[in-house]
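Re-running the complex after MR caught last week's input typo. The corrected sequence lines follow. Everything else is unchanged.
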Amino acid sequence: MTSPRIILLAHGSSDKRWCETFEQLADPTLKAVDNARIAYMELAEPSMDTVIAQGVAEGASDFVIIPLFLAAGRHLRKDVPAMIKELEQTHGANIHLAPPIGENPVLGQAIRDVVMMQLEQAPS
Amino acid sequence: MTSPRIILLAHGSSDKRWCETFEQLADPTLKAVDNARIAYMELAEPSMDTVIAQGVAEGASDFVIIPLFLAAGRHLRKDVPAMIKELEQTHGANIHLAPPIGENPVLGQAIRDVVMMQLEQAPS
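Corrected-run output:
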């Protein structure tokens, strides 16, 4: 059995700057994890559908979606699970939805580090 | 001159679980930084108005708002700056809007760490 493919799921926006920020956020993970990809829930490409279709074409069947969201709202409680159900049927894939990154205590510690860096700068 | 008060700004939601996640995310910062507070942009209390009014009543005049957002969209580019302008006039305070936490490279590294932890668990 091969390990599941990691998909970092961002919300997406028609604003390119939004997507660029998420690409930078994803970059350390994409460099560290083989075959990891970023995908957008809406308004930007690649979509989950695109990324999963590509993975299946390359022989993958198991995917883990890790939401680049700080908390779970309507999107992660309703919209994304419904999209996943449909994607599983369309592509014959197993797709596991992980908790949003913000539910991991590592994020709270990172936020504290960011605030500490901010405090060392004079407000501009 | 006293150092500015730190306000961690979350989006807010009528869903209590959403706010609880942000309170947990804010916790390490609130423990590490004197007089730091969390505030919500909308749909939850305390609002920015509440937190700044309280700070001013306690003698503070300078505030730094650090958005607990992964990227800057319409809210941080338009809505929040407009709210800040109004709050500055209402409360006679100086309010500096910092970049969203997601623009700091520390966050991308934290995401990689979260993914690594996720990979060590079998998908449930």
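None of the earlier attempt is carried over here. Chain B has a mean pLDDT of 95. The first strand of chain B starts at residue 5 and ends at 10.
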